[in-house]
Structure formats: C-alpha cells, structure tokens
Design a protein that fits this description.
The chain is built from two helices and no strands. By secondary structure, the protein is an all-alpha fold.
C-alpha cells in the first residue's frame, strides 16, 4: 500500500522574497546595538536615544517624578 504524496503547503510569503532574505542574512553579523551614551552598556533594542534599558528606565522614572511634583508647586 502506498501513501498519498503530501502536497506542498501554500506559502504566504512569495519564494522570491524568502530567497532574497536568505541571501542577505549572514549568521554572526547581526547589527550591534551600540553603546549607551550614559554608562557604556549595550543599548536597548528599541531605544532611539542611545540608552541602555537601565538608563532608559531611570529617565522614564525621572519624568514621572517631575510630572507628579509640578502640580504641588503651583
């Protein structure tokens, strides 16, 4: 008894796009995140300011403190 041949599943992404992506990707040469401008640690992946995750978090916390203190001074 023979099995039915399995049909190739329909791809969402065209083969040309996949092939182009495979050619551009080189393992081990991922884009380096850079260094934090404050402490020199590796930058957070989604940081546009050039900050590591710790410095970015401290900056956000400082903004929140300033916003909370301003109404008390008025």
């Amino acid at each position: 008894m023979r099995r039915k041949p399995i049909a190739k599943p329909e791809s969402i992404v065209p083969d040309k796009v996949l092939e182009r992506a495979r050619k551009k990707y080189v393992p081990g040469q991922e884009k380096s995140p850079g260094k934090c401008v404050v402490c020199g640690a590796p930058c957070a992946p989604n940081s546009t300011e050039g900050l590591c995750w710790v410095c970015r978090r401290l900056k956000i916390s400082a903004w929140r403190e300033v916003e909370q203190q301003m109404p008390a001074q008025d």
